[in-house]
Stage iii sporulation protein aa
Amino acid sequence: MDERSEIAACYRGVPQNDVGPRTDVLDGCPKAEGLLRLLRSMGPQVLATDEIGREEDVLAIEEAVHSGVTLLATAHGRNREELLTRPGLERMLKRKVFQRLVVLSRREGPGTVEGIFDAGGNRLKEGRVWGSWSAQR
């Protein structure tokens, strides 16, 4: 789901970015509406979208998760605590909707991986727990 052409960069319906050979892109449609359309009409194995956070986005994501679809999504924020100030994201994090949380920054250039966490907020590294969300700042 590419509401603002930021993922696939579609031009006249053709992705300009390589999103893979078996990828359908719904471009220029409101995110929540598009996620539900894709879920109902395409039978997807995976849905990907970015910048989730509005309540209607969260409801569409919850519908997809309850349908057994794997989800890849992004949300912008400085840290987990900031994300928890958004009611919909707080609900999803507390319900452990996501199996992994990847925190990225630009500290050492775009895409610097600051940490990978499990659904409970535990920092993962080589299969070991290195801390928890509650200890992170």
Remarks:
- The beta strands are 46-49, 70-73, 100-105, 112-118, 122-125, 128-132.
- The longest helix spans residues 31-42.
- Confidence is low (pLDDT under 50) at residues 126-137.
